[in-house]
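Re: Re: ligand-bound prediction request (bumping)

Still looking for help on this. To restate: I need the protein modeled with S-adenosylmethionine bound, output as structure tokens. Inputs repeated here so nobody has to scroll up.
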Amino acid sequence: MVNFKKARERMVQAQVMARGVHDERVLEAMRKVPRHLFVDEALRDQAYSDHPLPIAENQTISQPYIVGLMTESLELKGAEKVLEIGTGSGYQSAVLAELADRVFSIERHPELGYRANSILRNLGYDNVIIRVGDGSLGWPDDAPFDGIIVTAGTPMIPQPLIDQLAMGGRLIVPVGDRIAQDLILVQRGREGIKKTNLGGVRFVNLVGKWGWKE
Ligand code: SAM
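Reply:
Sorry for the wait, this slipped through. Here it is.
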């Protein structure tokens, strides 16, 4: 029987901190969120391993280090409104919910959206709203957002997401081909848009108007 709390601490130290994620708030959130409850029961023992895991609809819950890296890049302080594209298991939404004021998350597969919503409710996260739809269009009715995180790979940065980024806001998105991408950090400042490449990643495809065709 795995001791999940100990496994979580090991995950934070050996996978996340060891690779250079040092934002104490992010590390604390990852120590707290019970990642094993977001994966299938049969995979719970592997929930804190150093790799992504399969979830329903041929999708994945991202590797813990990538969750840490992407979350840290948003530099959340607690008062932000954050948009997530690709709810998946709901794990990343829970980490964001620990760090920001409100989280809006969009998932294209209804079953995943409903399941994530029910897990998040059971855990008491009442600052996350999940919508089923094409997240490449963003969430215009509640824009602008201080942080936007895209957890699926796209051939280009969806323009609606850039448009929905608040002044001073940060958007993190994997951009590349269907197999491999670069993690691009987009910052909106007074001088305009600045892009920084944070390195190579492999994500499932963002499927939608501003992503890949099915
Ligand atoms: N953040 C998730 C987690 O913590 O489990 C991992 C997400 S998984 C790597 C990517 C997700 O993006 C999948 O669930 C997929 O269905 C979803 N997705 C792909 N294209 C999408 C789109 N246009 N709008 C919303 N969700 C999308």
